[in-house]
């Protein structure tokens, strides 16, 4: 066995992007997401490895991508796991994103339960687990990320009882009565319990997980001092009486379940927003938009969970009833293309685009567009300029594990400017309690929060934003990684 890494991250995607030049030459560039930034120090310190799919499928007659093809980094070994087009369709688009994703986001659309997808999910999880077991050194720490890889902890445990295994779920864990719909619920839970530490963003998710285990007959011990949970849940507000932390006894092992709210590299985002280039870009953006009195922004993946339609309808209501004047406002909505082959995503995009068009048709005028919409991912510099320029940020997700957009916006307003309208159904709402909170399922509630954000006295807005920046500044992604890994020992 070629086991060489003391710290192994297993995630659906490798932190690389594939580029094809005009002459057809393929190259790979690092893609620095939050997770990579947070884990880099640990990966470097421990001669780490990152196992994941490189982002392009490999047909049967093609050579799979190898470590040698990928960006070379002395401190981190990138280990690619190949997916065929069929794997991608059944494991990724199917079981991960058309079964688990909608089930875990409270059935905003109906999950599909298909045995062929499940079988492929098992096969592909096995491939990731095999790669991790081969890469991990004796006694290594292996950290498995997210819902695409639920079965990996148990599979690694069977092959390598010597390693410490962590599992972190980046999306919400649903209520027991929803999770119990899943035909393969026992297999998913039992294999997840192969981990030593299982982490969630919110007390709600951890509580749902513990209650589900209990409902299915597991021996669950809940932290006795719930009132004392504040130290355990690290900044997240704990609903009275919920078992947000606990332990589960499995085959003589103790599995710890806890709350670890993810965050951003707060200092880095804040520094970026305060560079002269970024300040100039924000000013120029406002001017290009016609220097509106109120600039509102939305930045999301085009996903039905994000409530893009709901925020558009709330804005439309305020324009229709005269609470906001079209000449005064401008909304910039940037939506990254996502999972575009799935019907529910096509439908989400269509409804959002129809609504943008209707608002502009009814309320725009020659020379003034009310909603500027683009279906594209922007470079992060441009996202930061948009955050800085925006007077109000609209985050109206119907359900969201955390929502990093809300935290990024706050990090761009450390001077106390701006206002955040935030859905109660995001993990971020458990921490950013000074936002203008709203219920995105209730158009009136979103409208009220938006009007509050616009109309409250400047001193009140500043108080709220400063309190939120203090929260984001002191709870960054480094702290998230450190606390999870400390719990894992
Ligand atoms: P996502 O659902 O992808 O993540 P989120 O946490 O908001 O959601 O992160 C999105 C990231 O993509 C942000 O860093 C944002 O800047 C960027 N982004 C979004 N739209 C963009 C655009 N149009 N152009 C450029 N960049 C854009 C999942 C869970 C979340 C959880 C994270 C991390 O669904 O709930 O917060 O993982 O755990």
Automatic annotation (TrEMBL):
<dbReference type="GO" id="GO:0005992">
    <property type="term" value="P:trehalose biosynthetic process"/>
</dbReference>
<dbReference type="Pfam" id="PF00982">
    <property type="entry name" value="Glyco_transf_20"/>
</dbReference>
<comment type="similarity">
    <text>Belongs to the glycosyltransferase 20 family.</text>
</comment>
<dbReference type="InterPro" id="IPR001830">
    <property type="entry name" value="Glyco_trans_20"/>
</dbReference>
<dbReference type="GO" id="GO:0003825">
    <property type="term" value="F:alpha,alpha-trehalose-phosphate synthase (UDP-forming) activity"/>
</dbReference>
<protein>
    <recommendedName>
        <fullName>alpha,alpha-trehalose-phosphate synthase (ADP-forming)</fullName>
        <ecNumber>2.4.1.347</ecNumber>
    </recommendedName>
</protein>
